[in-house]
Fold:
Amino acid sequence: DELIIGHNIRADARQYDDPDSADDHLGFRIAIDYVIKK
Structure:
């Protein structure tokens, strides 16, 4: 799971302007914040 999360962080930087991916990226950021705070 950690490898996938790392990939999503990098993908977020590349696809930030893709409106079709915006919701997915927001979900990844929320999930990452949850893991860090936990």
Summary: Residues 2 and 29 are 13 Å apart (CA to CA). The first helix runs from residue 2 to 15. The two ends are 16 Å apart (CA to CA). The chain has a mean pLDDT of 65.
